[in-house]
Predict the structure.
Amino acid sequence: MVELTLFVIFGLAAVFGAVSMVWARNPVYSALGLMLTMLSIAVFYVSNGGYFVAVVQVIIYAGAVMTLFLFVIMLIGVDKSEERTERLPVQRPLALGLLALFAAGVLWAGRLVWVTGAPAGVVPVDGSIEAIGTELFRKWVLPFEVTALLLIIAAAGAVALALFREDGGDE
Amino acid sequence: MTHFLETVFQSVFWSAVIKVVFVFALLLLTALILVWFERRVVAFMQNRVGPNRAGPFGILQTLADGLKLLFKEGIRPRKVEVGLYLAAPIMAMIPAFLIFLMVPIGAPIHIGETTVTLQGADLNIALLFVLAMSSIAVYAIVLAGWASGSKYPLLGGIRATAQMISYEAAMGLALVPVVVFASSQIAGGSLGVGTMSFSRIVALQAGSFRGPVPGWFVFSLLPSFVIFFTAAIAETNRAPFDLVEAESEIVGGYHTEYSGFRFAIFFLAEYINMFNLSAIAVTLFFGGWLGPGADLPYVGWLVPIFWFLLKTYALLFLFVWIRATLPRLRYDQLMTLGWKWLIPLSLAWLVVFVLLQGVRVFGMPWS
Amino acid sequence: MSLSAYLPIAIMALLASGFAAISLGLSRLIAPHNPTPEKLDPYECGIVPLQEPVQRFPVKFYLVAMLFVIFDVEIVFLFAWAVRFTQLGWYGIGAVGIFTLLLIETLVYVWKRGALDWNVARRSRRRPAVVEPLTEKAA
């Protein structure tokens, strides 16, 4: 019951955030809409017992990544008025078509799996940080190490993007 | 009476409500005292008297100031983004109040058969929750700065964000050894959860370090504490890291365009954050509420709260002392200190500590 | 531990935001309100503001935010390992050690590239122009 209530409230909040992210004319409000969605998803994680994932969601996405987005927005300049002309004339009908296809897919998948009444997971999943730590280092060490490589690439890319002029000489 | 209290605290909902209201009142009261405390201490350090008129020793000064601000006109400049401008103070309040819920302020109390913990919420992941909330706290400041539509707030907001995220990284890295230390003290092999819960971390500090010296983590993890405390000063935007509101450069920083009670809310959140971080430092490094005298008759349950507050105020005194002593840093110095000193230092300390702890717990790797 | 452990957080979030909203509303009711055009100008130390606030910020801020994301991810992984320190033993230390070494390498790289130097732009502009324009380049 509690879970359902949480799901309805924060589901609506998540959808509202996502829609307002696309809709907002001002990029700062877009970023805020995205933040609302991220926080709502964190609530879903908590209500499903994924405590660690929830807090990671807040730290990484709602905290760090959104700060990065805000900085990028400030970097470009907020008052740049958005260009309203559409370069791709077919994109709106195409988007609507894809949306209808996606909705149909969701409905189909839902009919297929959800209403069977059987529990979704076979083993009850432990979402505590201890369980995740064990899993991560026992089973998923290689992906974990590869993540470090990914982070290096991200840093190198950021440096290359931000400082590329210094190689050319004048700053 | 006892029976009634027992019933109340057995109900999950009502015990949560009571604890939350208690923490809320405590934080408001603390903010009132803390502002006065800081002004008095700084005044004495600068050979002045400080506020001493309102109430005994001037202790009601902050209350008077707050009431005054309540009656002041809240000017809303023409160029603000109204929605965000009004929401930013509220966004500053929420994380400030949420963080303190994690901190245990006293030993659990027994009412009849029921045990009541003096802690808002005992999460497994309290430490990560604190980090999460401090990364949320950045928003209020950057959005206040941006929504003001004025140049000084914008500069202050951007400065604040860059500063807070830089030092948050150092703070997070400095806290990893604490968790390593705590988890290696919990009986090896058992799949016990709650290594990061604050109540467990306090309980682990109950023993003795050497002889009469208590088993506070600070004795084993002094570098972590130093880095944490430095980062805490920067996180709360206090001198010498108060470039966010460097009056001589950017006027009031992010709250330049905030007047009246809107300003008061920001001010309140700032002081509550200062108290929060001191309380967390006490919990992690100075044994939290642990201290002698908890078995005294009748007042025994008050003694841990007294120790907790005493230790926290000792750290707050350090906050104020640093403010009164050190001049403000320049912005590049601030970033250099954060990225070129604190983060490398905390990484180095992490490596050294983990290797030492590994040898201590598991023996040599090749044996 | 269950969902109920998070109940105080929800209540506190409501209470704190409610307190802030109500006190702000109260202040609006009882405080005077007589705006004048001068009062509503953006703050500019008492003179008439001439410029709009800057809308662009140095790219360094973006770099800092990017680095922060990287370090945050690292910290979260470190905590996941730290709670299982005893159980994972030297194996865990090794796994995390490789990860941390790669991270330190990132930091060193960014440092060497000068992404952490906050005053370099000002210096490089000043030095060739004012001090010694040619010898500096030769060195």
Notes: Chain A has two domains: 1-78, 125-171. Residues 125-171 of chain A form one domain. DSSP finds seven helices and no strands in chain A. Residues 167-171 of chain A have pLDDT under 50 and may be disordered.
